[in-house]
Amino acid sequence: MKKLDQLRKKIDIIDDKILKLLQNRSKLALDIGSLKNKNSKSSNLYRPERQAKILSRLFLKKSSLFNEKDIFNFWKEIFFHQTTLQGSIDFLIPENLKKLEKKIIFDALGNNIIFKTYKNFPNASSKIKDNNNKFLILPFPGKTKKADWWISKHFKDLFVISAIPFFCKNKSIPKLVVVSKNKPILEGDCSCLYVSPILIKDEKLKKINYFKSHYLYRSTNLLNYNKLKFLGAYPNLKI
Questions:
Q1: Per-residue pLDDT tens digits for 108-130
Q2: Residue 60 neighbours by CB distance under 10 Å
Q3: 86 burial type by CB count under 10 A (0-12 exposed, 13-18 middle, 19+ buried)
Q4: Which of 44, 54, 117, 153 is most exposed, with minimal Cβ within 10 Å?
Q5: pLDDT tens, 185-218?
Q6: Do 200 and 228 form a contact (C-beta atoms < 8 A)?
Q7: Strands of 90-94's sheet in order across
Q8: Count of helices and strands (H, E) across the chain
Q9: Left if phi > 0, otherwise alpha if psi is -120 to 50, otherwise beta: which for 146?
């Protein structure tokens, strides 16, 4: 029992150090939030590309006791807590989103996330356009009624900035995407989405959907072709 108590005391000391380090990280997050508030161009608080960069670096330090999924599950809660320390962020989801899809959101963004529902996409999109820190969570662009938002005129001036789940195996199609008024910041490996009224044959583009005379493409490259509209991009984070 004496040996057990000694080990537990060592854990207590480590817990104290972890808490102290988290407090220090929180202070830095507040400083970053203060700087963002002074600069309207960088006032968007949700930065998935920054989170992906941090996680990718941490994954290189994994061990047999702590794998990528473990690291992600801890850090997603840290990300959410320290982002909300900087200011208020709102996530809006369609009213008809399924329970499984809601679970995927919690798995990706943390169990403490609170989101609001909406019925009308045009009204929801207008709210997003008025605020740097309001975000829509939508089904990945598709052919169904709830997934055809990508061909809507109301999507103009909005961008995909992240995928849900955050991890995509072998560059598979995500279930959901996060949409913002802010253009995505492209850092590291990412998937860019494009829409076009014409069929484009280019090895840099992969056609992943066709609906109502609109082609949806994905690429790992930032392209600037005539008749090719940039829909947004999301980080590719792999386990």
A1: 998 888 889 998 899 999 999 98
A2: 7
A3: buried
A4: 153
A5: 888 889 999 999 999 989 999 999 999 999 999 9
A6: yes
A7: 115-118, 90-94, 134-139, 176-180, 159-164, 229-235, 190-196, 214-219, 206-211
A8: 5, 9
A9: alpha
Q: Is the distance from CB of 232 to CB of 179 less than 8 angstroms? A: yes
**Are 128 and 179 spatial neighbours (Cβ–Cβ below 8 Å)?**
yes
Is the separation of the CB atoms in 133 and 192 below 8 Å? no
pLDDT of residue 161: 96
Nearest to 165 by CA among 52, 50, 46, 44: 52
Backbone φ and ψ for 109, nearest 5 degrees, come out as -110, -10
Q: How many CA atoms lie within 13 A of 213 on its CB side?
A: 3
What is the bridge-based pairing of β-strands 206-211 and 214-219?
A: antiparallel
Q: Read out DSSP for 97-161?
A: --HHHHHHHHHHH-TT--EEEES-HHHHHHHHHT-TTEEEEEEPS-SSGGG-GGGSGGGTT-EEE
Element (DSSP H or E) covering residue 70: helix 68-86
Name residue 92's beta-bridge partners.
Answer: 116, 136
Angle 107-96-123 from CA coordinates, rounded to 5°? 105
Tell me the one-letter amino acid at 81.
Answer: H
- Rounded average pLDDT over 46-51: 93
Q: Grade residue 41 by pLDDT with cuts at 50, 70 and 90.
A: low
Q: How confident is the model at residue 42 (pLDDT cuts 50, 70, 90)?
A: low
